[in-house]
Amino acid sequence: MKPILVVNSGSSSLKYQLIDMVTEEVLAHGLLERVSDHGVAFAQMLKEIAAGEPRLEGISPVAVGHRVVHGGTAFSQATVVTDQVLTQIHELASLAPLHNPGNLAGIEAAIAAFPDVPHVAVFDTAFHQSLAPASYTYAIDTAVASKHHIRRYGFHGTSHSYVASRTAEFLGRDLADLKIIVLHLGNGASACAIDCGRSIETSMGMTPLEGLVMGSRSGDLDPAILMYLSRVADYTPDQLDLLLNRESGLVGLTGLNDMRDVSLAATAGDPRSTLALEIYAHRIRHYVGAYFALLGGLDAVVFTAGVGENSADVRARVIVPLAHLGLTLDESRNAVSGGGARKISGEGAAVSVLVIPTNEELEIARQLLDVLEA
Ligand code: ADP
């Protein structure tokens, strides 16, 4: 057995998986919520693991992998945690105040619990460090941008990278020969254009707010709306943050933030939900077209994460109107729910349309081993 513990520690939650990397079998997994002390949560996690299965009592991971949201420009790959790395993650907290402090608290608790094994940080931003300057630079005063580290970083990189590799495997092709658009549609959502296994463009930006319509985030909008609201309605920065990150997207449009509820309401004839679904799919099609152009060709469009893996309705709303781009949908394949990686495009289509379940924990464990065994 080669047990690797993968930890996704938020400000008030702790998600974990213990994976045997000899077989890639998940030995234990869980989610602790309302966490106020990460050290206490770690002790609770160890109790849960031992109680869940007798054979795991006393088991100790040979290494711990940590999800870290923001790696800035400092981290373009998974990195063994040292004191210096901890300091850097701490410094990056100004770019990701909602995420990095919770990630850091989890790493510190894990080091206290497992002081003798290597800890590896895997960054959501790392996969997108391959973006060219023309993709990551915002067209604002370069002095202001540089002083405040303003640029596109992109997120969901662990998922995009995993799904791209699985796509190559599924198609029996070499990743280096493929042009892929991955649509990660969960509560948060982002699109990524991947050429030869490298991210060349992605829809999330300096923060996870930009791009697609999400559960409670607006995605793209005219930034002048923020100045306008602050002038005409005295919105403060915190209120704008709340409006755009928590009260927009599906929840802002419909009052519902779960795609299942929005779909049900639309089917029942609610016009707001129908419009929300149209906006959601329209925005995705906008990005698919743009990324097709940037990639200069296209082998596969891949749906992943909660909505992408489960909503046949959303997939149909995205793909059916794109027949002119060579995208087709086999209705009966699209309607099948559950299962692993599958093709949903029609027979002989120029571009494969796939559903590939993401697995960020496994990808973190694999990247950890790559780093430790390099
Ligand atoms: P997170 O970004 O929190 O990791 P997930 O990838 O788990 O999110 O996606 C969560 C979202 O997936 C939920 O908000 C829900 O709207 C959506 N979802 C899950 N199952 C279905 C389904 N059967 N049909 C439509 N949407 C679904």
TrEMBL record:
GO terms for biological process: acetate metabolic process; acetyl-CoA biosynthetic process. GO terms for molecular function: acetate kinase activity; ATP binding; magnesium ion binding. GO terms for cellular component: cytoplasm. Mg(2+) binds at N8, E360. Gene3D superfamilies: 3.30.420.40. The active site is at D124. Pathway: Metabolic intermediate biosynthesis; acetyl-CoA biosynthesis; acetyl-CoA from acetate: step 1/2. Keywords: ATP-binding, Cytoplasm, Kinase, Magnesium, Metal-binding, Nucleotide-binding, Transferase. It catalyses: acetate + ATP = acetyl phosphate + ADP. Substrate binds at R67. It is found in: Cytoplasm. ATP binds at K15, H184, L185, G186, N187, G188, D258, M259, R260, G306, V307, G308, E309, N310. Pfam families: Acetate_kinase. Its EC number is 2.7.2.1. Its cofactor is Mg(2+); Mn(2+). Mg(2+). Can also accept Mn(2+). InterPro entries: Ac/propionate_kinase, Aliphatic_acid_kin_short-chain, Aliphatic_acid_kinase_CS, ATPase_NBD. NCBIfam families: ackA. PANTHER family: ACETATE KINASE, ACETATE KINASE-RELATED. HAMAP family: Acetate_kinase. Belongs to the acetokinase family. This is Acetate kinase. It comes from Alpinimonas psychrophila.
